[in-house]
Design brief:
The chain has helices at about 5-25, 25-30, 35-40, 50-65, 80-85, 125-130, 155-160, 170-175, 200-205, 215-225, 245-255, 265-285, 295-305, 320-330, 345-350, 360-370, 390-395, 400-410, 425-435, 465-485; strands spanning about 95-100, 110-115, 135-140, 140-145, 165, 180, 190, 210, 230-235, 260-265, 290, 335-340, 355-360, 415-420, 445-450. Strands 10-9-12-13 form a 4-stranded parallel β-sheet, sandwiched between helices. The chain has a 3-stranded parallel β-sheet with strand order 11-15-14. The protein has a two-stranded antiparallel ribbon with strand order 1-8. Helix content is about 40%, strand content about 10%. It starts with 5 loop residues before the first helix and ends with a helix.
């Protein structure tokens, strides 16, 4: 899902600049000058004018500080005020996406438009077939009245010259559950009663108008200034995201200021064992099938859009949840921080009392850049969690959960499996049909919201193909080291 463009570059530049200011104890003094520094008058404006560009930067900073843009009460409130609240631990509400309305103003209001291919034909099939009389012919060319158009697409199908084009709204097109739509002002609005926090809209928006609400600044401030100790829980997908060995990545994370590091693969061991046992028990009791429960976007999908699937979801907690229990047992007085590639993990962690913060792969990369940590030169001393099965680190890629379960099944048990690789309109139809099927040839479904799995999450920094290779190399790197300690 990683999509690299100038909007993504701006977001990452903002993260790095803000963390540098915080690291130099200059955030409160300098934050209000950031929009001016990043969009000076001497540069050509990206939008209509430099003032618009600066307003967009301001609101993107607000989002990164953890605020919902729609909650702004006074446009003249300086960023410094928001930064002060963020560092004190601004209370979030469980919705982790926000729309920067200043940046969301350039997409089409109606999806169909007449191109210059229109031949002004006598038949005018577009006009006569329009059910809303929304097409007029002016100076021999068809024109769509956007006040009447209902986006049915009949005109496009009727045109013999293919002169009517469909213009998508990227965020709306990408959302698999129709949770984002324009309001009366033409600004996209997220319906959190429907949203599953998959992040597809955020990566699809070419204007960077949809942003996640971050916790990284409050966390980093506490690491620098608070006496509270922290333990980082590192998702297996992180090992696939940076140009360094697995040991260098883990050691680099600790060098940021964490007092301890635990691999979430330890929790994956526990998820595998419990989920395998649960699957066998369910099948023995006559259940037709069971699905995984470790993808929070999928779990939210069933809760909000497919309650008929809920009885078939595994009750086994996710690797993150199990690892949080381990962290609290080993470090009862530490703040627990999950580091991963998933936006929906923020939502899952919000409901888990054992997890205090979530930071993403992008935010971790910004911390490395701001603190000038060169991963390639970091000590490669072993820093791996003990007794982790290789398959548990493989959870990060699609098929990983299935492989892990098969690895612990005895020869007496055989299961049929299927992978749902990515939640989209097609896979939703398939999933919703499962409870009504009379005969089931598959007993275990692994469901991942992101095609490719967690290594293709919405807040990653490495493309899928590269991540797949890096993850395999990381697992190979770790396996011999573990074998030597046995």
């Amino acid at each position: 899902m990683t999509y690299y463009n100038n909007a993504v570059i701006t977001k990452r530049e903002l993260l790095v600049r803000l963390i540098k200011l915080l690291d130099n104890n200059a955030l409160l003094d300098e934050i209000d000058r950031l929009p001016l520094q990043m969009r000076p008058r001497t540069n050509s404006p990206i939008r209509c004018c430099v003032h618009k560009d600066r307003a967009v930067i301001k609101y993107k900073i607000m989002a990164l500080l953890g605020f919902n843009i729609a909650d702004e009460e006074d446009e003249l409130t300086p960023l410094r005020v928001y930064a002060e609240q963020s560092l004190k631990g601004y209370t979030q509400n469980g919705n982790f996406l926000t729309v920067v309305d200043e940046a969301c103003s350039s997409c089409v209001q109606v999806n169909y438009t007449v191109s210059n291919l229109c031949q002004g034909c006598e038949g005018r099939p577009c006009q006569v077939n329009c059910p809303k009389d929304a097409i007029m012919v002016i100076n021999g060319k068809a024109n769509i009245d956007h006040q009447k158009c209902v986006n049915c697409g009949i005109c496009q199908k009727a045109c013999p010259f293919h002169a009517i084009a469909y213009l998508p709204v990227p965020c709306e097109e990408s959302c698999p559950v129709k949770a984002i739509r324009k309001n009366e002002e033409g600004i996209e609005k997220i319906d959190f009663e429907k949203c599953i926090h998959c992040g597809k809209c955020m990566t699809a928006c070419p204007f960077g108008a949809i942003s996640e609400k971050s916790q990284v600044f409050n966390l980093f401030y506490n690491i620098k200034h608070s006496k509270e100790q922290t333990v980082a829980m590192v998702a297996p997908a992180i090992l696939s995201q940076f140009k360094a060995s697995a040991s260098q990545i883990l050691n680099s994370i600790q060098s940021i200021g964490f007092d301890a590091v635990i691999e979430v693969a330890e929790g994956a061991n526990m998820t595998t064992d419990h989920e395998t046992q649960e699957l066998l028990e369910r099948l023995e009791e006559g259940a037709p099938f069971m699905t995984t429960s470790c993808c929070p976007s999928y779990v939210q999908f069933t809760e909000k859009h497919a309650p008929e699937l809920k009885p078939y979801i595994s009750h086994t907690p996710s690797p993150m949840a199990y690892t949080a229990l381990l962290a609290k047992e080993r470090y009862p007085n530490h703040k627990v921080v999950f580091i991963g590639p998933c936006l929906a993990k923020r939502s899952e962690a919000y409901q888990n009392p054992n997890i205090d913060y979530v930071i993403t792969t992008e935010e971790l990369g910004a911390l490395f850049a701001a603190k000038k940590i060169d991963l390639g030169t970091v000590n490669e001393a072993l820093n791996f969690s003990e007794n982790v099965r290789p398959e548990s680190r493989g959870y990060a890629a699609s098929g990983g959960v299935t492989n892990a379960i098969k690895s612990v099944l005895s020869n007496q048990h055989s299961i049929t499996t299927e992978l749902i690789d990515g939640i989209d309109k097609r896979s939703i139809r398939l999933l919703k049909a499962l409870p009504g099927k009379k005969a089931h040839t598959t007993s275990f479904y692994e469901v991942m919201a992101c095609d490719g799995g967690c290594i293709n999450g919405p807040v990653n920094v490495s493309p899928l193909k590269v991540s797949q290779t890096k993850l395999k190399n990381a697992i190979r790197e770790i396996e011999p080291a573990e074998a030597l300690t046995e």
